Amino acid sequence: MLMFRYIAYHYLKYIAVILFALVFFMVGFDYMESADKLQSANLIVIYLTYKTFFAVDMLLPLSLVFAMIATKIFLIRSNALVAIYALGYNKTDVIKPFVGVAVAIMTLYIALHATSFARADEYANNIRRSAQYLQPTSNLFFTFKDRYVYFGKLYPLQERAEDIRIFTHENGALQQVLSAEGAYYADEHWHLNHAVSLQKPKTLSLEGDGITVTQLQDLTLLEGFRPKILDQVYEGKVNYTILDAIDALMLLGSENLNIDKIKSALYRIFITPLFVPSLIILIFFFVPISPRFLNITLFSFVAILATMMTWSFLFMLTELSNNKTIPSEVGIVLPVLALFTAALILWYRNRGHGVDAHS
């Protein structure tokens, strides 16, 4: 337990230092580019806060791997690693603090995606463009069941919309048009206030009735179509929170609509973080225990380069999956599971083994 705490303490220390440095660099560089577009101190503070959240979202996985490399080098330089092995610990004992801390942090990291943390970059970009962290979505047109729906403006946070048009069709023919100046979402439904209904007769003839115009005080429609789902799905965004993604997946799946982007977002949240403990294991077992058998400068360069290349490759595949260029199962799930499987095999082969002089 003492060994676990010792390694975990130094690992957490390096995580904090490296994450702060990377986030500070990313946010500072972004601020220098965007400073002229932010007109007030309040906007600057809010913008930098959201950009910091986004930078943590992007860089925390990298920081965990870099911190493991830094901690391992520290243990080698100080000969602490040799001393730990001399006390009877084996490689799997030494790697457990790294994996345990990394898994705990990545679990918290995943949980944060159930909050607006997942949309930090969107909020920051909105502030830079229009001095508002949440912009209304304009001219939203979508289908739901047997209806075509148009929202002139959608305000997801306020859960309301303006300039509503709903077109109902049967067998390819328009049957009804509903219009309203505004609507709000409550009790899992959209409520249209003071709506006007234009109803076409069943059969058109010179002797038949004409179009029926009806004033409706409170009309309830579009069950389950939450404002955030509308904003995310029909604007083609990929920065879902976990709950929004699950709701959208269930709703659109029941409508037989394309859910590839939603699956990609969920895979990115739950599957992609597995590459962190996988890389930690793979890099750890290839490092000798003593500086006599290790060119530390070369090792640092190769390990950091390998981590950056792996992260960049996974990021590229994720973007391709988000754009539906490749299936998300191929672009996200397959490469991460391949890394994870390789790490498990390496862990199993080294389980309980002693340490020889050259390893």
From TrEMBL:
It is found in: Cell membrane. It is a multi-pass membrane protein. The keyword Transmembrane applies. The chain crosses the membrane at residues 12-32, 44-67, 74-92, 98-120, 265-287, 293-318, 330-348. Keywords: Cell membrane, Membrane, Transmembrane, Transmembrane helix. It comes from Sulfurimonas diazotrophicus. This is LptF/LptG family permease. The keyword Cell membrane applies. InterPro entries: LptG/LptF_permease.
